[in-house]
């Protein structure tokens, strides 16, 4: 499931980069800020979560998945007033991250 987060984050990042040309300066700033956040999910959250799972630290993987869900929520609430052009992607990213966190939490309970 961590790979699903990676795929969804990459898809969203590509869309953000496609939206930047032609956007207003305010929208461009917001989109570039969101691009940094999604890039962080890809580079840090995903790789660290995979490493944590491989090293037997599912709690860290759970926290990183929750963090990715929170980033998607922040992206949705802060990007534009009204409906964001990234609503679908942010919602999918949020859901994938929450599901990943729940799966890891179940695994954690099974280990204890």
UniProtKB/TrEMBL annotation:
Organism lineage: Eukaryota, Viridiplantae, Streptophyta, Embryophyta, Tracheophyta
Name under which the protein is recorded: Pectinesterase inhibitor domain protein
Species the sequence originates in: Medicago truncatula
GO MF annotation terms: enzyme inhibitor activity
Domain of life (superkingdom): Eukaryota
Coiled coil (UniProt feature): none
């Amino acid at each position: 499931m961590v790979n699903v987060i990676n795929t969804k984050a990459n898809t969203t990042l590509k869309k953000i980069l496609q939206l930047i040309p032609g956007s207003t300066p305010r929208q461009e700033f917001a989109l570039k800020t969101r691009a940094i956040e999604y890039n962080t999910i890809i580079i840090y959250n995903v790789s660290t979560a995979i490493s944590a799972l491989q090293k037997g630290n599912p709690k860290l993987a759970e926290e990183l998945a929750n963090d990715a869900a929170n980033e998607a929520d922040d992206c949705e609430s802060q990007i534009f007033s009204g409906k964001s052009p990234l609503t679908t992607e942010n919602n999918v990213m949020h859901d994938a991250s929450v599901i990943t966190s729940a799966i890891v939490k179940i695994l954690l309970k099974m280990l204890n």
